Amino acid sequence: MIDRFILIAIASTLVVTAQAGGIHKWVDENGRVHYGDHPPEQTRTEEIGPAVSVVSEPRPAPTDDELENAVDKRDAKRVKLLLSEGAAVPAGILGRAAKTNDVGILEELLNAREQSIAAIARTPGTAEHSMQIFYDRTIGTAVAYDAHEVVRFLAGRGANVEGSGLEPFIIEVVRRGYVQTARALLDNGADVNARKGWALRLAAESGDAAMVQVLLRAGADINAHAAGKFPSGPPLADATRRGHTDVVDMLRAYGAEE
Description:
Number of helices: 13
Radius of gyration: 36 Å
Strand content: 5-15%
Number of domains: 2
Mean pLDDT: 84
Number of strands: 3
Structural class: mainly alpha
Distance between the termini: 129 Å
Strand order of the largest sheet: 2-1-3
CATH class of the largest domain: Mainly Alpha
Shape: elongated
Low-confidence stretches: 1-20
């Protein structure tokens, strides 16, 4: 009986069960040497050192340059990844995105910006007021760069489609010949007769038949006299004086007075 207990004690000293956290060396049944921290149970092992913990430092938040580069390349996946990694959204990058006419990228940036503002807002309505400012500023950039899809998107979010500068947006886009952006503004409620019909007068005088048609379909006053220090005649007179026969015919077809 005593011999039996002695044999059990000796066996227990020879068979070493894996110790949690240590690095072990052992030889398998085929004579191959292994190293690791999880040797098979009931295997003779030799502990050769403590476990090594590898701690990886967190990646720093992406820089503004990284985000701007992704926006400029219109890389929507990259933009989304950088935002998920904590990239900040500076106000200036919204206008940068608007120039690309990429609604998807701009929406990602605006949503991230809105979340960051909401997180620090202390009074009700602060985030909404701040975002309204960004919408209005960004639509101004979109108008200037003929980014008509972005104009529609921002108008849908409540951006001011009239403009707050020296001249209304509709006059600005008519002056530049941005037909699709003009249509986007008018579809979202811009005043086609701002400044007493100045937009139609400009389009008629320049001979831009496509723009004239867009304005007329939006309800432009076909017989309005433009405002200003030196008021001009109605659009038909402007088009006639400049010799734009296609515009003259269109205005007459819509009922312009001679």
